[in-house]
Amino acid sequence: MPATVSLSKTSNIREVYFTPNGSIRQPGTLRFATSRGERTVTIHLGKGRVVVSQ
């Protein structure tokens, strides 16, 4: 990751795992502190769909 981006302690997962068929193994939320504010990546259970929000 760039030096200006860090994973926040409020994230409830630390890594993203996919199964061989492309499904997500563990859903959760990754929160990143950036120079432009916090960004959130929500990973939904199922076919690996994610939502990125500012």
In what range is the share of β-strand residues? 35-45%
What is the structural class?
mainly beta
Shape descriptor reads elongated
State the separation between the terminal residues, measured CA to CA.
18 Å
What's the gyration radius in Å? 12 Å
Number of domains: 1
Summarize the structure.
This protein is an all-beta fold. 0% of the residues lie in helices and 37% in strands.
Question: Which key phrases capture this entry?
Answer:
54 residues; mainly beta; 4-stranded antiparallel sheet; 37% strand
Describe this structure in words.
The structure is a single chain. The protein has no helices and four strands. The chain is an all-beta fold. It has one domain. A hairpin with a 6-residue loop joins β3 and β4. The two termini are 18 Å apart. The model has no long low-confidence stretch (mean pLDDT 88).
Give the SSE layout:
Blueprint: E1 6-7, E2 28-34, E3 37-43, E4 50-53
Antiparallel strand pairs: 1-2, 2-3, 3-4
